[in-house]
Description:
Elements: H1 2-14, H2 17-33, H3 35-46, H4 50-74, E1 78-81, E2 84-90, E3 93-97, H5 103-117, E4 120-124, H6 130-142, E5 150-152, H7 157-165, E6 172-176, H8 179-191, E7 195-199, E8 205-208, H9 214-226, E9 238-242, H10 246-258, H11 260-263, H12 270-285, E10 289-292, E11 308-313, H13 318-321, E12 328-334, H14 337-344, E13 353-356, H15 360-367, E14 376-377, E15 395-396, H16 401-406, E16 409-415
Parallel strand pairs: 3-4, 3-6, 4-5, 6-7, 8-9, 8-13, 9-12, 11-12, 13-14
Antiparallel strand pairs: 1-2, 2-16, 7-15, 10-11
Helix pairs in contact: 2-4, 2-5, 2-6, 3-4, 3-6, 4-5, 9-10
The structure holds nicotinamide-adenine-dinucleotide.
Amino acid sequence: AVRAARGALPAWAATPPAERAERIAALRDVLVARKEEIAETVTAELGSPLKLSQAVHVGAPIAVAGSYAELAASYAFEEKVGNSTVHLEPVGVVGAITPWNYPLHQIVAKVAPALAAGCTVVLKPAEDTPLTAQLFAEAVHEAGLPAGVFNLVTGRGPVAGQALAGHEGVDLVSFTGSTAVGRQIGATAGAAVKRVALELGGKSANVILPSADLAKAVNVGVANVMSNSGQTCSAWTRMLVHDSQYDEAVALAVEAAAKYGERMGPVVNAKQQQRVRSYIEKGVAEGARLVAGGPEAPRDQGYFVSPTVFADVTPEMTIAQEEIFGPVLSILRYEDEADALRIANGTVYGLAGAVWAGEVTEAVAFARQLDTGQVDINGGRFNPLAPFGGYKQSGVGRELGSHGLSEYLQTKSLQF
Ligand code: NAD
């Protein structure tokens, strides 16, 4: 597969950006035409409710593919600096390794910008969701991309993934998944002096300032954590509430969580279910107060986990520090803004977050002090053009929009 990608690289890199844009637009159109089939496949593999699969698991990657069709056509692949012309050229062959939580989005967020940049790709998708990846490969073929520009290799992480990450014919490894594997891939890439992009975990804070609309902030905050059964790296899994509003916020969260019992799908597999349940047990053991859900499986069949809310969580507890990747919310108490900031920034992660306040300017002033790559202000919507990626151990590099495209480019300066 790497050989095929190398073979296809010179011609694809030399294809005018407008033509690359046309192929990516055609790919988007095939995804649109096959969206029902893709949504059903995501539901079959991941277990997400069909409506979520249609709206998010297929809707988001269609939007992202569309954004790169436009960006490929409009991006400035050449710039002038004084007496130099700087050419932005494709990095080369990309090895993409993706997780199962948003199976198609994670693929498109790497493959679409790589193709827009003029790179060729070998994809190793997660072993839990290979059929979604297979459908994507069919879509690439139907869209008329030249042979070898995109290649799919399914297989297990430590076998197929590791072989791809360590391959000398790969110029850039783009990985999304766990911090442990990301660290290993970063080390391998560093030793080979090759480019690497890492999208890792998160433990994002949802900071509710005293002037905020508390009910709205809590309701949106709970929905954010429960969506996709908690399997979202950017989920706001720590809710920070002022001491004076703490009991009210907990009551609101309990009420909100009760709505998700029927609505929520299972987690991806037995291992993930066990992992989430053991985190819930750990929360109880370390003295957090369980106010909704718990470690018991709510149904006999399927890998379901109850929507779970913990109160009286303190910053040093395991459930306030480690990524659980399940429907588990921790509510923490703060005394004043300085305390809230210290707690919010007090993990190894920095992927996303939220700030709620009566005035936007107050929320923005707080958000600017957060060590994190994205912050939603008063419930700001997901923007597929905004750079997405981590501060600290949440990763290296950015995906989406023009920042995501520039990850796949290298610069050459010509002086006149
Ligand atoms: P993982 O990191 O093991 O898997 C992600 C991808 O990496 C998969 O394609 C996998 O096959 C591959 N991989 C695994 N080992 C590899 C290796 N040694 N070399 C190269 N590739 C390898 O993640 P997981 O086991 O599926 O999930 C475990 C935890 O990771 C989750 O509970 C969650 O905390 C986190 N996670 C984060 C994200 C995210 O979006 N940031 C996504 C999925 C999982």
